[in-house]
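Handout, tutorial session.
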Amino acid sequence: MTSARTRTTTRLRPRTLLIGLLVLVTVMLLALLIGAGDLGWRRVLAEIVAQLSGGTSPLSAREAAIVWEIRLPRVVLAGLVGAALASSGAAFQGVFRNPLADPYLLGAAAGAGMAATMVVVLAPAVSGWVVGPLQLAAFAGALGGVGLSWVLGRSSGGTGTATLLLAGVAVASFLTAVQTFVQQLNTETIRQVYTWTLGGLNISSWHEVWLALPYIAASAVVLCLCARLLDVLTLGDAEASSLGVRPGRVRLLLLVAASLATAAAVSVSGLIGFVGIVVPHLVRMLAGASYRVIIPMSLIGGAAFLVVADHVARTIMPGELPLGVVTAFAGAPFFVLVLRTAQVRSL
């Protein structure tokens, strides 16, 4: 009985994958059909069918542009950002063997926030770049924060994940202090920085999709390929080494891939919390504890989760609600539940 159960929980079953994909396609379609602009879901559905079959569209050129140039890129970008944050959160939980780890653990959020604040303060009117200075700064800042944590952790003489974790806490605190100091010197920029910090996809286009897609796709491939090695690491470094796995190199590869995906997500969406904690835990409860299941299903589940959250953010009230607020409303109660029921232990 034990071996049979192990087989069912350590491999991604086709039925589980199919159900996840169907859920994702369904929520993406619903988000495309229903929006703040009252186009009528039947007319939008007829437009989609017309585009696929070459038929006559029931929408005007302006209405069709709303569907294909505003709604669709936003839905796709929400899926990409959700997939990046959820899979990165799962990888961080596996690397640190801590169920409360998230993609921002090593200073990605603090680095992105500080860099974005610097751009808002020092170059508020810069335009005409292929990549916006705010996006570029957030991407570089996120990677810089993680890189600084890694260097600090290694230079302190420690080799374990606990040392790296402490370095991440120190770096995040320092970068947040710098950001706060700069904001206090330029109080007129607080509102703009605050809006970015809450996260959102209200300025989404195909340009942002193509900017984030290569990094998130490459990271997703690496994380999926390393999922089996992540399972081996849960046995302990000694056991993993005896099986021919080099724990240090595997952790470094996973952290680089997860941090790259997180940086790409943050650069186009701002800081969106709880996705990297909620989704991997839900996948673990519903589909199994193996990272060969958790990583790919977190990609799908994270995409579906954020598409739904973004749809709520843009339709629940006349003025758009920050996306980070919606994910906090959904994630905070779940996070409290995790704190009450889960001990921080090896997964």
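The second record follows below. Compare its token runs with those of the first.
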Amino acid sequence: MRTVRGLVAGLLAVAAIGLPAGCSGPADSATGGSRTPSSRPAASRSTHSPTPSPSPSPSPVSYPLRGTGSYAIAPGHSATLGRHGTLLRFQVAVEHGIDNLSVSGFADQVVDILGDPQGWTAGGDWRLRRVGPGQPHDFVLYLATPATRDVLCGAAFDRYTSCRNGDAVVINVSRWLHGVPYYHDLTAYRDYAVSHEVGHRLGHGHELCPGKGKPAPTMEQQTLGLHGCTPNPWPYPHGRRYTGPSGEYPLVVPTDPTTWYRPS
């Protein structure tokens, strides 16, 4: 089981401006989905005890097409992930306008992914540590709205994929909440999205599917399709490095705007 040190300190607040009604994501938790949902059975009740009132359901995560362009930086810091290799420090930033999502909770999920024994620290080349506001850092991992994604990525109109641009690792909130149709496990897709984009920051380029029915390399553009491979989020599945041939697929994203923006 993975362990993440609890976060400390206060949240860096940046003034937010008024936003239009946005789109909604899963309502299973304030972070937009837990990696380890509880399967504990309900406790038995005495027939003489009053039935407790049900707890209110958390509000679904929602976001506009374009956020404010300002961010909340997750407070505190994590333990160092990995035991050997070059240390890179990173911040986690969530764009204002993404509502009902815990900034600290999202940061915990990112640390959980990057610290996984099948993740980038498994090979001994890298150590990673999340740091808080005002701390020296080597890159920032953003959770951004679809239109802001285009700004941060410095790319042509897309609004669908995530990216890495210099020291900005950008996760599109639409993909974080909704995944892609052929990744039936949203948690696994989130593992992939973070691993893939951070992989670019670590110097890795795109790779191709190595053969029909084989697991996709982490650096394959799995958001654009599996191209005969099966889903795989990890660079070190079962603790061993796994790669494919160097190359990339054409950037063909859905033209239906509901794939990147779903008004409530």
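Points raised in discussion: The longest strand covers residues 86-95.
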